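[audit] Reproducing an earlier prediction to check determinism. Same input, same settings, fresh worker. If the tokens differ from the archived copy the diff job will pick it up downstream; this log only records the rerun itself.
[audit] input (136 residues):
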Amino acid sequence: MNRRTVSIQLPADLALAVHDLATEQEGTVAKIVEDVLVAHLAAHKSSKKKSEIVDQRLIFALQKLLFRDMAEAENWDDLDVRMRRHGYFMRIAWGGLSLHTETSGQKLCNTADLGFSYVTFLRRFGPGKPKDPRTV
């Protein structure tokens, strides 16, 4: 593992407490800080994954609302117009398409969750991507 030196400033009482803990565990302050950071990052990553799980009721409602327009769109521009009519837009995200609200830009789900992957649209419409209404 490649290591780097990092300096941090801590309140005196916290620095003393970490030092005491390291001595108690027969370790080092660096190891204590590393363990805390690894645990924090792991917890952050798992909470992020949980929040990315989309409510199936939302998926069902969006499928019902958007399925026909997604199925009948003739090209990228037509798809953009149809999505905006409902107050949504799509954005490329990690090799796929994600559906966002037009007003806040909040991501709702991936289009694959609705039954239409990015590859499906690429096969139908060719290379290209949906237009983000906030950058047009």
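[audit] rerun output stored. Observation attached for the diff report: The CA atoms of residues 1 and 61 lie 48 Å apart.
[audit] end
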